[in-house]
Amino acid sequence: MGSRPCHAANSATPSDSATPATDSATGNIDVVEIEDDVPATKKRKLRSEVLKDFDLISVNGVWKAKCKWCKKHLCGQTRNGTTHLKNHLFICDDRILERV
Fold this sequence. Notes:
Elements (H helix, E strand, L loop, with lengths): L2 E5 L23 E5 L18 E6 L2 E6 L5 E3 L7 H9 L1 H7 L1
């Protein structure tokens, strides 16, 4: 297993110096081991029913949700939630006309 030492500071503020942090009372250096062989996390499944009416696409490095009905691009980053996408479906003329 590959691991490398990482020096942790004893104070709450980060240190800009290249020297390791030492405990002023004992003079000990704090060393934290970091695992390099940690498996990558698995992507989560998108669970919202609203996303069935949208295609997630990347536009200039930003995720957008493209409406399958009117082709409008809305913000599609996962941290923004899906309420705005649901609200769009209520006012999307192309979807309303198709459902009639």
